[in-house]
């Protein structure tokens, strides 16, 4: 007795085969498969019914032909016997039975049976013979009938045999004609359905394209509602979803801009406090320590020596705190932005990052640059470099960093007028400093929002685990007489 584990694969083998047939197929192809399978199933049922009817009709017609042939043969033999002309039976009988196509005659001649086929009239052409498989399918089960003729001259018997080949040939002709018509009509119907289903299901392709756009962050995409009610409902929900995501992105962008503004405000306040309060305190400490040292310079003895030593340590500590304060001030507020050259500010930032990270090699390249573009643009470039390098340092993977800054698309470079130039910053890292599967890094989001707030773009390309490229482009807004200057 088979176990359950042996029965299950057999039970679901057909199901798995159908699943493999439909897996990965388009909806239109699956529907055409189903329609074709239904048509084939209906054709098989109709063919079985047609074969049964053909076999029955063939049997009835052949039995009727045998009955008529028996009567005509009996009358012919009796007539010839009465006139003493039985010797002409082999010539006369086929002429009498010439209109019966489904009968063959066997006559005893010289002790042997000889086949005598009826002579057809009107020169009718017989249909081509049917294939053996078709003949065995529609051929009925028949038995021959014999007529024994008894006369004064001891006549030989006449045997009549049913011959369904002509009827089967006619059935094959009808079947082949119907099959050709059926195949042609089904091909036409399948072609029409292929075109109609393509038109009906076209919104699904638009919906797939819309989903791809949403995945790429293009939330402004909308799909035109189709005429089909069900698909129109789906596209309506999609458009609402896209609208909600677009609104959420705008809200997130607004919050990011507020966060960036708050960060800059906090940095500005901290820098002012460090400059005004901490700087003044350090200046007071250094001044008092210097006064103490001056006062004890002319005195002798151990207490005076200790005071001079402590005053020197206080001055050294104050100098270190001043240097640290200046470094923190530079990170919080990079000098008078908009008043000095952008190239100098960036170069000083990169030099500071190089001193802080000895294991990383930096490469800088400046193209055509103006002295300054605006405080907000200069600050966006400065912060983008700072945050990108900080992210690379935090990942601990990148060993080579390249910084490329310059104008692109200007009339002097492209030779075309009317195209708005952009300030392009390209940061290249020799390792992947961001992970695709994680949520968007705060540094990426901050750089994107900084560029977007100035009407620019920020594109990040991750080449597997090999390298990362950050490209930021900000449109340049300046007067017509202003031109780019080198660094």
Briefly summarize what is shown:
The protein has helices at 4-22, 27-82, 89-96, 132-138, 165-200, 202-215, 229-296, 302-332, 342-356, 375-395, 411-414, 442-453; strands at 103-109, 112-116, 145-147, 158-162, 361-366, 400-408, 422-429, 457-463, 467-475.
Descriptive tags:
disordered N terminus, single chain, Heat Shock Protein 90, five-stranded mixed β-sheet, alpha+beta, rod-shaped, four-stranded antiparallel β-sheet
How are the strands ordered across the major sheet?
A: 5-6-7-9-8
User: How do the SSEs run, as a string of H and E?
Assistant: HHHEEHEEHHHHHEHEHEHEE
Gap between N and C termini, in Å?
A: 90 Å
Number of domains: 3
Question: What is the gyration radius calculated from CA atoms?
Answer: 51 Å
- What form results from the Cα inertia axes? rod-shaped
Main sheet overview: 5 strands, mixed
Please provide a written account of the structure:
The structure is a single chain. Helix content is 60%, strand content 12%. By secondary structure, it is of the alpha+beta class. The strands form 2 sheets. A 5-stranded mixed beta sheet has the order 5-6-7-9-8, covered by helices on one side. Strand 1 and strand 2 form a beta hairpin. Helix 9 packs parallel to helix 10. The longest helix has 68 residues. The N terminus and C terminus are likely disordered.
